[in-house]
Amino acid sequence: MNFKLSISEFLCNVKVNIAARLESLSEAGGICISGTAFDHVENKLPLGYEYLGEQSVKNIVKPVRVYRVLRETEAVARRLSEVASKERMALPLPDKPSIAVLPFANMSGDPEQEYFSDGITEDIITALSKFRWFFVIARNSTFTYKGKTVDVKAVAQDLGVRYVLEGSVRKAGSRVRITAQLIDASTSHHVWAERYDRDLKDIFAVQDEITENIVTSIGPEFLSAEMRRAQRRDVRSLDAWDYIMRAAFHHSRYRKEDVVEAQRLLRKAIELDPFNAEGFCLLAFTYLMQVQFGWSESADQSIQEAAKAAEKAVAIDDRDAWAQTALGLVDLISRRYDDAIQRLKRAIILNRSLANAYGALGQALALVGEYAEAVEQINKAIRLSPRDPFLVYWFGHLGLAAFAEEQYDVACQWGAKVIRENPCFPGGHRLLAASYGQLGRIKEAQAVLKEMFLLMPGMTIDDVRRQVPFKDPGHMERYLDGLRKAGLK
């Protein structure tokens, strides 16, 4: 017998199947819902939710985002617990992620090594302070705990912070082992931990390397923890930072509807705090994403909105490297190439640990045809933050740099890698289709273009001309020609 299902019937069956599988994750009498359901109801029902992460369920290929609906007593208890926790604090929590870096313990048994452990601690504090969206306790306060056995939760309450970074240094002969761990003091949860073993040929070089590794690892982990925390918060008690973190979660999903939701959340954040540079930065990035992926009704209007948001962020804090990066990317999409490169270099000067500034600079250099330097800057970004949410962007930019150099095989490899990393990222399909087209692999180019249309419906050659701003007309025409060979009109 030949059974045929309509698309709507098929999707309905999938949803029913997922709902049935989620029952097994629920407690007796409890309710678990999928991420898709949560996205629809989070702001419409007076309920509390707990994010359970991505769960693998039977007969569903990809992990499913799962949320547990809190019972009324649980939601009330959680709100009371948060209030009580804040009341116990000697100082109120700041309205941005707050961290105290405790002096790294010298476990070497050699008092002369104190300068090394103290130096690493001080360097981490200094480097973290350059991230303008962190609230970092000053050295003079955290060093009052030096040499003492401390309770992390008590330290956090005394200093008024949510996160505490602690670590140790153990030197033996010419080798040194350094451990570090980031703790969410409100839950005692270990957000991140790492161990580094190094040869002390150049003690200051090792100190710099370890500091860089720790700081650049903390950044993405910090934001991931904050996004998860914001998702768990009762919608009735969100502050500006929570809205920004919820928006960051949606922005990181690279889907048209999620970008719209991110913009809605960011407007709420800005309404609550009109002088929050981070909110304006992320808002600029959402408009740029809409332009680059053809999701805006008017590319020119979206660029104008991105420019207004980025300019506002810079006006609020012109030493914010993120704000300078956002405005640099606005310059790039507006084809002000020299302005973009200069501004992105300034962002790196402001914060040499900000991987995204290196990635954005690499993108600009790729589009102006500076292949070797583009690869150098993007590799720095990847080295600084190898698990960054923006990683697929950087892979795509490496592909564009290779395409400009007529290295189409290499461009294909990067396009395929982007798609493997995130099938919902349309830039990978666009790059791969153009590269296959130039290699004469037309059937493969056509297949990839068909997939691209699922993510970028109605895409045209004129749209791509706006989305991928190559400076050299020759590079632009070769890119468009590759897409024409794939079948794009």
CATH topology of the largest domain: Serine Threonine Protein Phosphatase 5, Tetratricopeptide repeat
* Termini gap: 41 Å
- What order do the helices and strands follow? HEHEEHEEHEHHEEEHHHHHHHHHHHHHHH
Structural class: alpha/beta
Radius of gyration over C-alpha positions, nearest whole angstrom: 24 Å
Helix tally equals 21
CATH superfamily of the largest domain: Tetratricopeptide repeat domain
| Unreliable parts | 1-16
What is the architecture of the largest domain at the second tier of CATH? Alpha Horseshoe
* Main pleated sheet: 6 strands, mixed
Shape: globular
Structure description:
With 489 residues, the protein is α/β, with parallel strands linked by helices. It has 3 domains: 7-70, Nucleotide cyclase, GGDEF domain (Alpha-Beta Plaits); 98-222, ABC-type transport auxiliary lipoprotein component (Rossmann fold, 3-Layer(aba) Sandwich); 291-486, Serine Threonine Protein Phosphatase 5, Tetratricopeptide repeat, CATH 1.25.40.10. Helix content is 60%, strand content 11%. It has helices at 7-23, 35-41, 72-88, 114-129, 139-142, 152-159, 203-232, 240-251, 256-272, 277-292, 299-316, 321-333, 337-350, 355-368, 371-384, 391-404, 408-421, 426-439, 442-455, 461-467, 473-486, and strands at 31-34, 49-55, 64-69, 98-101, 105-106, 135-136, 163-172, 175-184, 189-199. Strands 4, 5, 6, 7, 8 and 9 form a 6-stranded mixed β-sheet that branches. A hairpin with a 4-residue loop joins strand 8 and strand 9 (189-199). Helix 7 (203-232) crosses helix 8 (240-251) and helix 8 (240-251) packs parallel to helix 10. The chain is globular, with a radius of gyration of 24 Å. The model is unreliable at 1-16 (pLDDT under 50).
